Amino acid sequence: MGKNSMSKLISFLVWLTGVIVALSIGFSMIGGTLSLPVWLGGATLAMIAGWIVVIATLLGVVLRIIELIK
Predict the structure, then answer these.
(1) Are the C-beta atoms of 46 and 35 separated by less than 8 Å?
(2) Is residue 29 classed exposed, middle or buried when 0-12, 13-18 and 19+ CB atoms within 10 A define those classes?
(3) Which residues contact 50 (CB under 8 A, 6 or more apart)?
(4) Continuous segment of H or E residues that includes residue 67
(5) 2-55 pLDDT, tens digit each
């Protein structure tokens, strides 16, 4: 493996790790495993934030795939 291909592999692994972590946290917030204290909006605000995280992450994945295809 050349230096450039190793760099691309590490970059992909870091990106994939970020996607997995973001989806894990987003789905945990949606499902109620992770929530906020009542004075910060409680479970409802956490659920809304979770959906925002999941949608933004999936949009980022789609945009990345489109970028790679071009």
Answers:
(1) yes
(2) buried
(3) 25, 26, 27, 28, 29, 30, 31, 34
(4) helix 42-69
(5) 678 888 899 999 999 999 999 999 999 999 998 889 998 899 999 999 999 999
